[in-house]
Amino acid sequence: MSTRLAKNGRLIDRSKQIEFTFNGKRMKGYAGDTLASALLANDQMMVGRSFKYHRPRGLVAAGPEEPNALVGLGTGDRFEPNQRATTTELFSGLSAQSQNHWPSLDFDVLAINNKLGRFLTAGFYYKMFIHPRPLWKHVYEPIIRQSAGLGKAPDKELKDADTYEHFYFFADVLVIGGGVAGLQAAKVAAQSGAKVLLLEQHNYWGGRAPVDGGTIEGMEPGAWVEKTLEELRGMDNVTLRDRCMGAGVYDHGYALGYERLTDHAPGQGGPRHRLWRIRASQIVTATGAIERPLSFAGNDIPGVMLAASMRDYAVNWGVTPGQKVVVATNNDDAYRTAIAMHGAGVEVVRVLDTRDSGGGSLMEEVRALGIRVECGRAIAKVKGSKRVTGVAICAQNGEGGAQEEVEADAVAMSGGWSPVVHLWSHCGGKLIWDEAHANFRPDPERPPLGADGNGFVIAAGAANGAAGLADALHDAQTAGEAAANAAGFTPKVGDAPAAEAPEENAMEAVWLMPAKADIKLRMKTWLDYQNDVKVSDVQLAAREGFESVEHTKRYTTLGMATDQGKLSNINGLAILADSLGSEIPQVGTTTFRPPYHPISMGAIGGEARGEIFQPLRKTPMYDWHDSNGADWEPVGQWRRPFAYVRSGESLHDAVNREVKNTRDNLGLLDASTLGKLVVKGPDAGKFLDMMYTNMMSTLKPGKCRYGLMCSENGFLIDDGVVARIDEDTWLCHTTTGGAERIHGHMEEWLQTEWWDWKVYVANVTEQLAQVAVVGPNARKVLEKLNEKAGGGMDLSKEALPFMEWRDGEIGGFKARAYRISFSGELSYEIAVAASDGLAFWTALMEAGQEFGVMPYGTECLHILRAEKGFIMIGDETDGTVIPQDLGLNWALSKKKEDFLGKRAHSRSHMADPDRWQLVGLETVDGSVLPDGAYAVGNGVNANGQKNTIGRVTSTYYSSNLGRGIAMGLVKHGPSRMGEVIEFPGTDGKIYKAKIVDQVFYDKEGEKQNV
Amino acid sequence: MSDPVSAMNGAKFSGLAQVEDSGLQGMITLRGDLASDTLKAAVKAATGADVPASGHVSLSAEGGVAWMSPDELLLLVPYEVVDAKVVDLAEALKGEHALAVNVSDARGVFRLSGDGAREVLAKICPVDMSAEAFKPGQFRRTRMAQVAAAFWLDDDGAFHIVCFRSVAAYVFNLLSVSAHPQSKVGVY
After folding, report:
1. I need a surface site. Which of A199, A560, A782, B50 has the fewest CB within 10 A?
2. pTM of the full predicted structure?
């Protein structure tokens, strides 16, 4: 059984007991435990079931490479699926659930898949479910997703209870990994004066060294780590962060750090995760190495564990997965596990070393402890289902005929070590195959390159393929010096700290155990635990012609699970290479992509949630609108009132009321969001003549003109009223969504094409609050305001005629008044300082009471303009429409030599008489046409669909006319007046509409001209 | 009648740092040839401060000048006199190609002070906020989470943040969330 040992456990505090639950069962651990070590202490060997065959699975590793122990963590609004038990620090009240089983972990119905294993080989789903096609989406996929799949998604009705944030940080040298190599590299770089940031993913420093032993500068590694940390903490130019994983390396020395602040203490307040967004001149990856499993039959049975992880559990947390351990290895390092387990009081039944000549001094040490070591031997298969019960032993160089069976409840395996090259590789660092150590390591000649063509990542220590303590420290010394140098500092060149560790014999590459294992064994030999990929699957893929490692990966799903193949990739591609009769370096690796280990979506989103999920732009009158019934409509990032709903009213009622009232009495519109661009300079007139299709240079100061803007391709991009302020100053109104876009458009032409024209543009949109005062009583309310203030600007028809503007005071407010109308009514648009906006609006509302004032929203605005047949950018235009389509030829200057879009308009397609043209549409029965509906004509197109001859661009119910009105673009529309055309709706009905003039209301324009 | 109010109307938050609406600040966007002696003199007359080097602000007793781009300055003057200053500038710059326009009401202005101020900004701006990198007198146009913003650091260690008025509430909330009392990073 797995249990807590009487001794050991350098990371736990036995005086602090912690309670937690696993699948509802109450368990106990100690402060300093991970969830994984605590589960082992409670004899919870089985932690989940596999993805495809639902086989029982236990802990294989002790770190982020763990493939099996994924749990659902927390409950309610703190529930999170797929959390690794090995990277989860234990806390009081922790609640974890195992995943991927039904109905329970112990008894799983779908484990029947295990018996069907010979049918569920690689590519099974592709082959089985490809026909008939429609069944995939509607039948097969939902069932497969139900039976496979990992954790459950959190409840969609609940919001994550935690908060997150980002943090930007800049360093000369970023060191990722706080093992002895990282510490040494950081120290060397820091001593040069460079600003150093050192990240460590765990909550403890030193990496493997304190477990693996040896001495550094005559000290135990743990003591050296403490001493070095003290030195680093004493340096002002060093920042140390633990619980902070280097997640990704990107172009230009950009890197992400994933700091887990409260995962170990949920609910303590403050952000849960912090995403460090780092810019570094140089990045040192001291990310260590990961042990590889051995590929033997039954290597997935709970109790089979990586050798180094087994001793981590014993040394760091004082737990053991079993009482009788068999060690299988192809290298010397696993002997450390035999020594550690023996030292912890666990019986080591056998060490099976695949090498005929065995190991070096560590093997001798093991033998001296009385442990039986057999060389040239291997595991034929592991016995057991929910946990290991025994091991069949055979010759490594055979087919697996068992020569002996021993009783055991745990197996430690070591297939050698793979440097963690992920961060080196993220941004293009290349690898070389190291024959002696049978691993890929960073090729120092081909690092990721920065903007200057030089490398900006340096690998150090075990991550660089350095084997052994002394080599790793020496490599780290060199890396620290190189990083400081490349960052522009002068490192103090010195010797790496002297380290001593036992000499080790060469390892032997073992990709299959035993070397000639038969098919029965290979079908129970797992490569990828999480995605249930076996040796036989990869061999099948190779036989079926999947020669590229990337194709094999996708066909078999090798390395595609949440652990991204940390354990399986090298073993899998070695099998592939063997099957293809190729060499491992020729087959190569799959691509390493960030993040190194999954990071939370919350960390990526950072602070952007709730009120600050995205910026909402508010006008100065926003709060007034909000407390007066505004039903908000998003217009870009602005929020504008769609209508002001009164109690007892529907939204539709409110719109109709506002439409009628504005025509009959007085309406107020908050028009502050309209873009306002000041254009000034000796060449401003010339410039605006290029920007607009019509002539702006001839406009007289004090007057306004409606203008159209086209892109250089001739399409209509914006419209609005332009006012000439003085000899060389114009003020251009844009649409609400156009302010920033048109400002950028103007600047682009001024900066890239007409850089020698003397024109300056300033965006003053937000400087001004603008109110449209609209309706028959518009003048009265403004005059009343002036009266109350004891005077103000003359707003009479004579003093301020239509399409003119004046500066002055209205009601005591400094104001600019424009006589412009987008509604066909008597209308003034009054601009005041934004800081006066609310006061001015309130004054208008008060003074307007006797004149029947009501505020109106954007829907009323739209209806009023549609009644008048005025176009709206974004409704009548969609990026494919030119002014000629809208009957706006009058606004295309014939006098001007050029304007943006002019040449495009002469192209044959633009001048095509078959282009759809703007008309009014009146339903025969008075109903409202569906928005965007297409009109159908005779015949069918090449696809057998009915030919379309037009579409609806704007459609509303007009309460003034008591019927639906619409505008649309129709082929040959203006010459088909009176004709009735058909619009099939998506509701199955056919809407019939008559083609009419688009001006539905006050065709003579008498109402605005009073 | 006119009683102008700033976008956040005196709002305050206190956490890792103090966030305060600075109230109304007179501001003028001035575009022109920054090397012109006429322009330099006009700027000095309007603000009492000199045209700053790029990336800097120069402050005087009654105002200041911030460098916005190679042909744009932001002049800081008392809110009450901004219209008069615009008129004076136009007069002084007659004959020069220049544009001076009042943008006082187009902005939200905040003061961010206290020990945590640098860390608060470093959470939302891609700027090196370390004391070695960002010093008093520096002025930075940048991104504050999802919106444009600019700030300078004064001699008393307080940051002055300028954003667009329409997003003043977003920026105030952003600063307040980032100044959550339990979110200290501990590096500055």
Report:
1. B50
2. 0.94
